[in-house]
Structures are given as C-alpha cells and as structure tokens.
Amino acid sequence: MRRHLRQNIKQLTTSYSSGFYSPRHVVDCALDDAVKLKDLNAFIKLTPELALHQAKESALRYHEKQQKGPLDGVTVAVKDNFCTKGITTTCASKMLQDFVPPYNATVYERLVNAGAVLIGKTNMDQFAMGSGTVDSIFGPTKNVWSKSLENNDWCIAGGSSGGSAIAVASGICYAGIGSDTGGSTRNPAAYCGVVGLKPTYGLVSRHGLIPLVNSMDVPGIFARSTSDCVDILNAIAGPDRLDSTTISKPYHPIALPEPEQIDLSKIRIGIPKEYHCTGLSPEVLETWAKIADILEDGGAMVKQVSLPHTPSSIYVYSILNQCEVASNMARYDGIEYGHRADDDRSTEDLYAKTRAEGFNSVVKNRILSGNYFLLRENYNKYFEKALRVRRLIANDFQNVFENVNADENVDILLTPTTLTDAPLYKDFISLSNRDQCAVQDYCTQPANMAGIPALSLPIRLSQQGLPIGLQLMANVLNEQLLLTVTRWIEAQVGFDCLNNEQLYNIRK
User: Fold this and answer.
1) Which of 195, 213, 207 is nearest to 129 (CA)?
2) What does UniProt list as catalytic (predicted)?
3) I need a surface site. Which of 79, 331, 390, 439 has the fewest CB within 10 A?
4) Treating both helix axes as pointing N-terminal to C-terminal, what angle do 385-401 and 310-328 enclose, rounded to 10 degrees?
C-alpha cells in the first residue's frame, strides 16, 4: 500500500510543504495504480499529460511557497458528464463519444483554480440514467470490494457515479466528483465504502454538468473521510453567475471541530419509520439500529419521526425524471454536435437515425415515457399531480426540521442509504432499469425532491465482506451540522476503506 494514501488531504499537503512528498510522486503513483487497476473500469479516459503538467506546476508553487490552497497537488477524478475543455466528455454514450467541450464546468474550473490535479474522467451509466454503472458503452465498472473480478461473479459499484466512487475507494484519487439526481453519489458511496455528499440544491454550480433532471441534479463529492469532503466542498461551493439556480448569498467555508470537541447533547436525531421498508436487509437494519444507539449513548436525543409521503416518492421521481429527460434529450439531433447518422434523405430521417443509433434502450424508454406523460391529455393526470406530491414530500422534511412545535423538531435524519450491500452484477442485470432504480434509490431520492443536503457514510462490512453505509440528512444549507455529526460517527466506527484484501492483491 502506498504510504501517502494513509494521509488525508490536509496531511498530504502538509507533507508537500515540508518536502516529504512531492505532487509528482503522488501523481506518478496515481497514474500507475490507474493502469494496474484498469480491470475495475473506473475511468473512461485517463489524462496523464495534463496530470503530470499540473503536478509539475504544483511542485513549483510549493517550492516557491506560493500554494493555491488546501487542494494544491491533490489528485481528483471527475465524472464524464462534467465538461472539461479540450478533453472528451462522453456521458458514457455513443451520442457524445467524440464530443470535446470548448469550456470547463464550473466545478472542474474551481478545482483547477485550487490546484487540484485531474487524473481522468470516470465511468458512469449512460447520461447518468442508472444505479449500477452497468450501462456505459465503455463497459461496466466493477466494485473493488468484490471477492472475484472474473466472469459475472463481481459486485456492482452502484451508480450512476460508480467510476468516481471506485477511483476514490481504490486509492487512485483523494477525491472524486459525481452527480446526484436521485442518489447517484450516495448509492455508489455506500456500496464502495467511501463518503458521498449531495449538497443542498444550488449550493454548487451545475454549469457544465450535462443535465439529466435540471430541478434535481446536484454535483456530488466522493472522499475517504469527512474532512476531505469538506475541503472539496469549500473549493467548489458558492454562487456562480453562469448558473442562475445557484444560491446567491456568499458561501462561508465550513470548519469542522475535532471529534472529541463535538457535543451531541443538543442534537436531535430523527429515525423515519417509513424507511424501515420491504427489502431492507437484516444487516442494514442492525447497522442502522446500532448507530442510533451509539448516537444516543453519545448524548444525542434519538426519536422516531414520520415522513408519510416517502412511499410515493419513487413513483413521483420516475414521472418527473422521465419528463425532464424527454426535454433535455431533445437537443441531441445530430445537427450541432454529437453523433450524426449517415443519412441525408431528409432532416426527419437524419434525426430519427441519429437518435436511434446514439441512445441506448434505457434512454429511449425514458424519452418515450416522458413524452407520453407530457401529452396534453396526460399532463394534468401525471406531470402536474407528480409536482403536487413532490411538494408534499418536501413539506414532510420541512415539518420534521421546522415544526411550529419546536419540541417536535429534529436536526438530523438517520436512514439506510441502500437496502442491502452491493448486489452481484449477474443478479442486478436480471432486473429492468426501472426496477433497479426503484430498489436502489428508495432511500436516497426523497432528498433530491426536497433539495436538502444528504450524505452516505461507510459504517462496517457485511458478512460478505462488503461495505454497508448509512445516510444522514439535514435541513437546507445545514451542511455544517450534517458534516459535524458525520465526523463524530466516523470517529466512533473507524471504517477504513483501504483495508481491502482484494485491493491489496490487485496492486501486488
């Protein structure tokens, strides 16, 4: 195991400053590991020339004591639906297989401005429409915690941001950027044993994130610890004049206390009864109960709460998702950019053949379903009613966080992230995409409906030796409290995502 991987971001950059490690050494190790671990299929494209150039510039800044900030020389991976100037951005699709953006997404631009080093663009489900990272034209991503990587006897990484999760879980990068529309950061974070944060909607710019569902898309963060997650969030959050949906008030960087300084005596933890649902594995339930007990023993008040519209959430999400997909996918017609079919008989034929060739069956099905829901005769029956129920779901969260009766309020919600540990690939693909997402996103997508911050934290390993994570949710713009409580739990459980026999064997 690389010794520098045992350090968090702050410790790494301190080592850079002292000269103990150099950015070039860490980047060389990252690129070497990315090749050794290529069977995991975490990356769609590695960027070695850019990474070495950025590492060289970072080393010079440290030599001259002119570091850009706490991320200078830190290795990162970016999901391949964030635009990167001069680097292909494919959304893991044939439609955008050769698309090279002329600009950077704001998230990536801010990472570069903070001195971070890009190792590569990571694998994902096509256009982020999935929960397993199995629908990419570049092949599926494999979970590094799998007992075997042969045949189909390996576990999925989760999705749709599975590549970024594996890039972090395997130790290639210190942090990864994903997108989260219904759980696409938290889901793979739970399966891969890393921290996965979905910030408040609008806290981080969506400019340059190729849209799936504009009203729910949020850039997400993968890291191996809460403190690393905070360092990335502080670098990328804040208003952006290029994205009108960002929150306009200034962002104040988060500073977390040390675990021993955290006082839980005034923290109220809510356990939503609706998340104890069909399909929840005994091991996840046991883990959930154990952490609730640990929080209570630590001084927090733990009580059951109700989010009554949770069972309706997955249906509402499906309708709204498909409606916005139908709208967003209309731009891919083969005229201005992206794949273009070899058919010049008519404009209509060109459109039809381009879209038939460029989209997989999952994307096509969502486009067709979305257009059906948006038909004049169906608009009120489906789309409008879904919006009304979405408001009820958001109100459920508001009622538990901001109840008029202050004694009924809670500060944090504790739930499972996923219902089980990572399923085997062969079992996962036996289900339709719709059923995959309905099961995998049950606990995660309500937070996107309400726009609240949510985080998945790895807790323990299952009897199969696979990570089990739990989800914490807080009120809008309450990332400070969310991450503080997360850090306290993290210190109690001591989960080590690099303590992985499979990872060690592959590297060896």
Assistant:
1) 213
2) 79, 160, 184
3) 331
4) 130
d(CA 350, CA 507): 47
Q: Are 418 and 470 in contact (CB under 8 A)?
A: no
Q: Using one digit for the tens of pLDDT, what is the confidence trace for 261-279?
A: 999 999 999 999 999 999 9
Q: In what order do the strands lie in the sheet with 43-46?
A: 43-46, 117-122, 75-79, 175-180, 218-223, 195-198, 454-461, 467-474, 412-416, 268-272, 301-305
> Long-range contact list for 431-435, CB < 8 A, 24+ apart?
433/129, 433/130, 433/135, 433/362, 433/365, 434/318, 434/365
The tokens describing 121, both together, are 């663009």
Residue 294 to residues 21, 226, 267, 286, 493, Cα–Cα distance (Å): 38, 18, 13, 12, 10
The whole-angstrom separation of Cα 204 and Cα 451 is 12
- Mean of the pLDDT values across residues 328-336? 93
Give the residue carrying structure tokens 């950025």.
54
For Cα atoms 201, 205, 210, give the angle at the middle one, nearest 5 degrees.
100
| Per-residue H/E/C for 67-91 | CCCCCCCCEEEEECCECECCECCCC
Two tokens at 498?
A: 């690099």
d(CA 298, CA 280) in angstroms, rounded, equals 26
Instruction: Tokens 């990419």: give the residue.
Output: 136
Three-class SS of residue 500? coil
| Model-wide pTM > 0.90 | yes
Whether the per-residue pLDDT at 508 is higher than 70: the answer is no
Residue with tokens 């489900």: 125
Q: Which residues are catalytic?
A: 79, 160, 184
Stretch (H or E) spanning 470: strand 467-474
Helix, strand, coil percent content, the chain, rounded in steps of 5: 45, 15, 40
Using CA atoms, how far apart are residues 26 and 197, in angstroms rounded to an integer?
Answer: 25
Nearest Cα to Cα of residue 450 among 397, 400, 383: 397
